[in-house]
């Protein structure tokens, strides 16, 4: 820099000349009324943004104009800025450091030596942080530019107005199906992310589908960039905390003068995934539950639609939505700058620390304040969600044995954040030491501690037990024939309300009907014999005929009763639970076979799966709050009816030993009829109220394995 400053102060005839590299691409851009210039280095494929004054300097570096003339020309173009020789020299030094100036042979050799030295240092640094390399792997795969150039002519119609409008109509159609069955989708996603009801194959298939969706997503970015004149030379893969990801370097979009084209490139990846989601949504809605296509389509909905809407288009994450917001606002490095601004504001206004303010214009300050606050809240919520997912996955399966793994993952995920928080606390304590050691603060700390200790012994709270449950009818009766027969008529359907004694089906039994006809004929014959004996006045014959007639009447009553029993009736008022009873037409039922089941759904029974270490906290009559997967925004109350006297043992590979669970029954009123048998969810059972310190000891007693001692 000293040599450049000296050159700027020399006479023009003896001054040094510098040339801006001729192979660089320079593109003018206007955002929010501000002019800037994007410079692309084709050798390193790096991009630089310069202001208008900086462009005025390097545009004059033609290798012929002396540096003093460059300075005077810039000063003449921007007389109000007061640009000095030192300013120009500093900017030239930054251009040289970025390798944007043409170099002599000696400088190229020196630069090569410096590059080799930097590579050795980077290698040593990477070897010393092998854990970071494992958690964040980054590999370049191919240069896809020629492939995209070959494919583009065949699919250019995908960027036409009719195709885009048709796609938006398809997205709206798919959104309608998703909204119509939103409860089922939310319940299935909740089961998926809480690791309940899905096996290892399901998660393996989700991982594979995620890879396919990611590849198509990145192809969307790359092909769109190519479509509007950019070059794409870098396509690779990443593993972030062992999670698959890909990248497609579309930095050439920075050179697009039309801002809409840049937005198209940013949105293209999500647009492709929305196509996958829309097709999968239609297939999912058009197929029956339990079929292979139905389950496969739901997994596509999760990996494409959910990830796109919740993550890719979310501007609070550094994905497509974030970069689209940057293009709209015309603000670079928004996330980091917002966090920096918010951190300084909190330090100055909340903790009253002596920190220099961040000098920004009012518009940027408003943007940083709003975005920084929203992003901080979202990030905090995501960290809590991830923590609970890890807890359910590791501690929920492995229990105490998984505690070291859980703590290790917590350290890897939150360690850097905790270290920053610790550094901040030390800085705050150092600056506010005179306040923290004051008598007032000491007295307040002692009072707070005393109140906390008193609260542990004075405040009571109920013991709480969480357990999964399945809903079933509290009272259910089966409709069975008294005598066997063939089903010839079914008058009910699943979900139909029936009254007590209502006919639900009719059977046919030819043997019974033939026997009834024979008994009726014999009855007429015996009746004739009785009349003849009475006419003759033969008392002995009359008595014998009447005895035979009584026997026939008894047999006739029994036969008529059996034939009447072929009309099957509901044993009680309720709802038919059996699916598709009409499919039993033509079937032959025996005396013990069930045709349909009828239940009173005004009150249901939730069967809770209570673990052995918590069954002692469940008492009859205790209140219970139930949250259903199908109704995620509502809760229902019930009471404990009882606990099964015997437990059920299950093998848990993570625990290494059998686990015993007890079935607890909870009566749940269902006045509105919204609850249905088979629904599942999570229940919270509230037991005896105890002091807080007793609850802590009770939790420790339930958590730690007694065999450990």
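Sequence proposed for the structure above (709 residues):
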């Amino acid at each position: 820099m000293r040599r450049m400053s000296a050159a700027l102060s020399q006479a023009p005839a003896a001054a040094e000349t510098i040339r801006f590299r001729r192979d660089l691409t320079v593109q003018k851009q206007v955002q929010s009324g501000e002019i800037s210039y994007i410079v692309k280095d084709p050798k390193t494929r790096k991009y630089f943004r310069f202001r208008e004054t900086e462009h005025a300097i390097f545009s004059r570096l033609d290798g012929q104009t002396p540096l003093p003339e460059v300075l005077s020309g810039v000063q003449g173009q921007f007389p109000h800025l007061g640009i000095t020789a030192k300013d120009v020299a500093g900017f030239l030094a930054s251009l040289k450091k970025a390798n944007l100036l043409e170099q002599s042979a000696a400088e190229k050799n020196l630069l090569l030596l410096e590059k080799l030295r930097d590579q050795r240092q980077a290698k040593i640094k990477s070897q010393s942080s092998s854990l970071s390399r494992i958690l964040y792997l980054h590999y370049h795969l191919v240069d896809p530019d020629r492939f995209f150039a070959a494919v583009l002519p065949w699919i250019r119609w995908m960027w036409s107005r009719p195709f885009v409008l048709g796609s938006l109509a398809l997205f709206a159609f798919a959104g309608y199906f998703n909204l119509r069955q939103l409860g089922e989708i939310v319940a299935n996603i909740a089961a998926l992310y809480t690791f309940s009801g899905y096996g290892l194959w399901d998660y393996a298939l989700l991982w594979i589908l995620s890879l396919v969706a990611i590849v198509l997503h990145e192809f969307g970015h790359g092909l769109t960039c190519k479509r509007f004149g950019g070059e794409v030379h870098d396509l690779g893969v990443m593993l972030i905390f062992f999670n698959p990801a890909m990248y497609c370097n579309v930095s050439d979009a920075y050179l697009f003068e039309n801002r809409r084209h840049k937005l198209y490139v940013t949105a293209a990846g999500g647009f492709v995934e929305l196509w996958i989601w829309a097709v999968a949504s239609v297939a999912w809605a058009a197929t029956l539950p339990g079929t292979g296509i139905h389950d496969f389509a739901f997994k596509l909905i999760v990996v494409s639609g959910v990830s796109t809407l919740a993550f890719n288009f979310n501007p609070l994450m550094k994905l497509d939505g974030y970069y689209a917001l940057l293009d709209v606002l015309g603000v670079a490095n928004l996330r980091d700058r917002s966090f920096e601004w918010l951190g300084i504001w909190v330090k100055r206004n909340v903790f009253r620390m002596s920190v220099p303010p961040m000098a920004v214009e009012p518009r940027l300050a408003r943007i940083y304040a709003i975005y920084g606050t929203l992003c901080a809240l979202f990030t905090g919520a995501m960290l809590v969600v991830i923590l609970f997912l890890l807890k359910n996955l590791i501690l929920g399966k492995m229990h105490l044995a998984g505690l070291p793994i859980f703590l290790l993952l917590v350290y890897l995920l939150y360690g850097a954040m905790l270290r920053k928080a610790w550094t901040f606390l030390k800085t705050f304590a150092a600056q506010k030491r005179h306040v923290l050691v004051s008598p007032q603060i000491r007295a307040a700390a002692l009072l707070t501690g005393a109140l906390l200790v008193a609260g542990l012994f004075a405040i009571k709270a109920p013991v709480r037990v969480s357990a999964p449950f399945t809903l079933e009818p509290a009272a259910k009766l089966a409709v069975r024939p008294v005598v066997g027969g063939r089903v010839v008529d079914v008058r009910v359907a699943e979900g139909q309300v029936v009254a007590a004694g209502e006919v639900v089906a009719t059977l046919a039994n030819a043997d019974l009907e033939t026997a009834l006809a024979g008994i009726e004929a014999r009855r007429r014959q015996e009746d004739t014999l009785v009349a003849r004996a009475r006419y003759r006045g033969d008392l002995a014959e009359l008595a014998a005929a009447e005895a035979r007639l009584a026997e026939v009447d008894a047999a006739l009553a029994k036969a008529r009763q059996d034939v009447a029993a072929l009309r099957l009736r509901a044993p009680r008022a309720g709802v038919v639970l059996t699916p598709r009873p009409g499919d039993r037409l033509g079937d032959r039922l025996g005396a013990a076979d069930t045709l349909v089941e009828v239940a009173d759904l005004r009150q249901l029974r939730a069967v809770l799966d209570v673990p052995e270490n918590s069954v002692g906290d469940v008492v009859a009559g205790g209140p219970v709050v139930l949250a259903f997967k199908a109704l995620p925004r509502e809760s229902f109350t019930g009471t404990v009816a009882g606990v099964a006297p015997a437990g059920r043992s299950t093998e848990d590979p993570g625990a290494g030993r059998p686990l015993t669970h007890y079935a607890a029954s909870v009566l749940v009123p269902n006045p509105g009829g919204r609850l249905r048998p088979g629904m599942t969810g999570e229940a919270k059972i509230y037991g005896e109220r105890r002091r807080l310190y007793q609850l802590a000891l009770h939790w420790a007693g339930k958590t730690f394995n007694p065999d450990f001692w």
